[in-house]
Amino acid sequence: MPIMHCCIKIEPAFGGDHTHIFFVSSRSLIPDRLILISELYISPLLPFSPPSLILISSTKLMANIHLILLVHGLWGKADHLSYIQSEIESDPTVSLHSKEKIVVYRTGSNEGYKTYDGIDLCGKRVGEEVEKEIARLNDGEDTVTHLSVMGYSLGGLIARYAIGVLYLKGYFKSIEPVNFTTFCSPHVGVLAPGDGVSVKIFNCLVPYLLANSGKQMFLMDKVRVIDYVNPGEEETPSSPLLKTNYNYQPLLLLMANPASVFHKALNGFKYKSLYANVTNDKRTSWWTAGISTMNPFEILDKNPNVQIDKNGAIKMDNGSKMSFHFIKDFEPNILDVKKTITVSKTTPKDTILEEQDVFESTEQIAENFFKRKAKWFFVFFNIVIYVPCWVITFIITNLIQRFQSTVRVIKASAAETDFWKDLYQLTNEDEQKPVIQRRPSLSRRLSESYDEFEKSVQDNIQTQTEDLIESVWDAMTSKRWDEPVLFEDGQPEESQDSLSITLEELSTLEFKDFSSSKDMNQDLEFFRPFQLKLSPPQKEIVHNLNKLNWNKFPVYITKTTSSHAAVIVRQDDPDFIEGKAIVQHWVRNVLRFPN
């Protein structure tokens, strides 16, 4: 506890038989700011004659601050995180478990189209914004001692970059990183798996709609990476003689490298967790938001007839089945990755179809056919009829914002070249630098400077753009009824009919050589239908990020198809009620506070 000097001014009260005692802090000795704290009756025999001023020392408790940082996503703004902020600040369990002062801070430096500028520039801005907030909080008697971070959608990647910036500047030498959580963040990028024509077209066109951030999420960018290695075996790791290698790779691949500051910073957080939708969220599906090369939930989006029932089971018409478990008190919205799931199948010789079964299957074929066509009709309706109502505004705004984004990126790239160089070097050593405290003025947030009409227009454009991209993605990946579902009929007869595994284990399974199935473990072969056709960089990202100890929470939202927005209750919508349960789970069961 720090010792603070203060002054007590004692002067006689009216009547002379007692005194007034005033407290004067060490900061303001101005008479008109004296505060009457008590009245004290004194004896005239005391060895001083009021009024007098006595210098004394007293102790004052200094509060420790746990700063909780919230980072919005693409096209987002601070208001999107209002519900989460209100839940943290009002939930009684937070004040019960935390012995520190909780400060929730929503970032505002990347609002709107500034998210086009790229994960790197947006992450740098957030890092600087956090520095300013820490300096502001430390400017008083309190001190920021702990940091927790939550990133939503693209904000999760921006947050990972930002903590790398803070790590490089040495902030985590004095501030302990506690919680790091992402909601529906594309850690593995959004490059759609597969080699179909529609998939290739989608992967080529969409990145250009989202400027630099789009290229980075689709792994189409290249950043210069500096890798320091020892020149020979005779050299020791402490030798100053190092060989420098330069190469170019996607930013997301660099950020997942264990030798990068981004991976080191993330590893420093004591509790790492993620939430990922298992359906109706094609852009941030389970495999990318849940960091996995396997996706047992893919069938939920590809076949509209398939759902997870109230008992946690997915049943297929060919007899195959998956049985999951929900987290207690959060059924049927959050699946438990630590409990065993059972995957079972039936071989063709064990499957007997009666006339009724055949008739029902025929009906389902017709139903599925029309549902698939309806998806393409919805895309057609969006593009030809509905989109023109807002496309002019979108195109003009997008062109202007892309131009402005390019200017911002060029300026940022030209400045602080040493900063970018330090950030993109790979080393096994701890490269944290001393913190340089500063207190620049905070810029006004976009959400505070926009009027209600402008914010409404921006929200509408964002919603329509998201719906359009989601509908195109949904249509191109929808599955024909007669395509293989969970298990193909051509599998060996001696293969197992069922196998149990946890979702946690399944998410970390890897096929090092997908083509050579001869030597493949029979258990792995059983899960081969869940394997996605990811690119080599995507597989490397999954492998490196899964080295970290994640708590993963698959989310199943059914009351709305807008599960990406519903998961954090992005706006006030009665259909987002399931999202409130998800947020409550995070605040009460996942968010941790130091003892």
TrEMBL record:
GO molecular function, one term: monoacylglycerol lipase activity
TM annotation in the entry: 376-400
This protein's UniProt keywords: Lipid degradation, Lipid metabolism, Membrane, Transmembrane, Transmembrane helix
Taxonomy, superkingdom: Eukaryota
GO BP term, pick one: lipid catabolic process
SUPFAM superfamilies referenced in this protein's UniProt entry, alphabetically: alpha/beta-Hydrolases
One matching Pfam family: DUF676
Entry GO terms, CC: lipid droplet
InterPro entries according to UniProt: AB_hydrolase_fold, DUF676_lipase-like, Lipase-like
Domain DUF676, chain residue ranges per copy: 64-284
Coiled coil start-end: none
Entry similarity comment: Belongs to the putative lipase ROG1 family.
Protein name: BA75_03740T0
Organism the protein comes from: Komagataella pastoris
